Amino acid sequence: MNENRVAHYTVVIVGGGQAGLSTSYHLSRQGIDHLVIEKHRAMHAWETQRWDNFCLVTPNWQCDLPGHPYAGPEPDGFMKKDEILNYLREFRTKVDPPIREGVSVRRVTPRPEGGFLVATSAGDFSADNVVVASGGYHEPIVPRMAERLPPAIVQIHSAQYRNAGQLRDGPVLVVGSGQSGAQIAEDLHLAGRKVFLAVGNAPRCARFYRGRDVVTWLADMGYYDMPVEEHPLREGVRDNTNHYVTGRDGGRDIDLRKFALEGMELYGALRDVDGERLLFEPNLASALDEADRTYNGINAAIDRHIAAKGLEAPPPSVYEPVWQPPEERRVLDLAVTGIASIVWCIGFRPDFHWLDAPVFNGAGHPQHRRGITAREGVYFIGLPWLHTWGSGRFGSVGRDAAHIVAHIDARARQARRGSAA
């Protein structure tokens, strides 16, 4: 193809979720021409990769997409799936982005004369800048040992889970206890299903403490404005598993020990498959203890904040375990237990194979500073802890988008000054 006839844009945004549309919003305000390319439909993941009873785990007041703050009647509530979709549809209408939906980006390569060639399923485009807004959750992780499970077992990933009714009758094994795993285990438990849960190393936190939502306390303490460079773990925090908690039914703790008292069976991390036997690590007690240490540690930080500020609040408390594992069970027999389905909740891996740019580390994760890479013209937006805790969420993605757009604008102005000199 003759590149001279390829449509050219100052910016091409890959991904039409909240990150991509937030970037489009700020580009439009700066009068910068651009194109958003979305493989499916804008915001599709919220509709196609969330279960029926999904709801936010952060209060609605934290939803603050650019030009579109939450304006509903329950700022301290937690939007359910349908409400989230409506919120996002309204945002798209406000942004009115120049978007091509149903178009896959196949390859982004640098051009000898500068900028990039963007090869897609709908033809080629060129751009001075490429903003990768496709997130970091691309390929659902299912371990290879799953191939050795009996074929009668129904296996799905958390991204495919919708409700208890889609699974075969019988007990369900949920593997992983991060946000999705813990909430899906609860969803199945509340639906009356017998649940076995393989517990991972995810931390947990309280929903409410000393009279307020813990998120509200942490916001007052400045936690959500802390840049990654100031976090004790530095960039290592990007690899952390999210704390499990829920906004369901107005918000509450998720206490796996309480589930155990109610009949859910807890095991340690799943290690291997041996025919119809599942083998587990003997680490359930330590995993529960560590999650509780995090829970109490966050509350203790809130206690210190209240004391330092001289605030009035209900008295402090410390969580005491309501259940202890009687033993470390290391084997589970599928035939004996009758487990009919497994839900894998162990996350996703990134896939940026289509981007030809030397901006990745050995694990395939982009290296950047607040979304700006060392390769001129390549940017990332919407990744967890891109800059702060809220970078991958509705609360702060707009600020990151504004920062990136300001950098693109300054670069374009500098180029124009150089051409005029």
TrEMBL record:
Q: What is the protein's given name?
A: Putative flavoprotein involved in K+ transport
Q: What is the lineage of its organism?
A: Bacteria, Pseudomonadati, Pseudomonadota, Alphaproteobacteria, Hyphomicrobiales
Output the InterPro entries linked to this UniProt entry: Auxin_biosynth/cation_transpt (IPR050982), CHP04046_FMN-dependent (IPR024000), FAD/NAD-bd_sf (IPR036188)
Provide this UniProt record's keywords sorted from A to Z.
Oxidoreductase
Q: Record's NCBIfam families?
A: MSMEG_0569_nitr (TIGR04046)
Oxidoreductase as UniProt keyword: yes
**What top-level branch of life does the organism fall under?**
Bacteria
Q: Which Pfam families match?
A: Pyr_redox_3
State the Gene Ontology terms under molecular function.
Answer: flavin adenine dinucleotide binding; monooxygenase activity
Does the record's keyword annotation contain Oxidoreductase?
yes
From which source organism is this entry? Ancylobacter rudongensis
